[in-house]
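Hi F.,

I've been meaning to write this up properly since the lab meeting, where we talked about keeping a consistent format for the predictions we share between groups. The idea is simple: the sequence comes first, exactly as it goes in, then the structure tokens exactly as they come out, then a line or two of notes. No screenshots and no reformatting. I'm using this chain as the first example so we have something concrete to point to.
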Amino acid sequence: VGRVLGHPYGFVDRIAKLIPFELGITLDKALEQEPELGRLYREDEAVQVLIDLARALEGVARNAGKHAG
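Output, unedited:
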């Protein structure tokens, strides 16, 4: 999402590193668990747009391709 919005790698990477490395974590849970991520979401409109779009896409299949097998 960050790349599509044209954000620099460092901006997106900083936000991504705030998301806890936990199997099955959602962005909503990450916002609850990580105070710094929640603060950025509330205070920075660019972060809010990025996370809101990512939440809308969360759980959507990346592609419908099949592997031979």
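Notes:
Residues 45-57 form the longest helix (13 residues).
Residues 27 and 61 are 16 Å apart (CA to CA).

If this format works for you, I'll send the rest the same way.

G.
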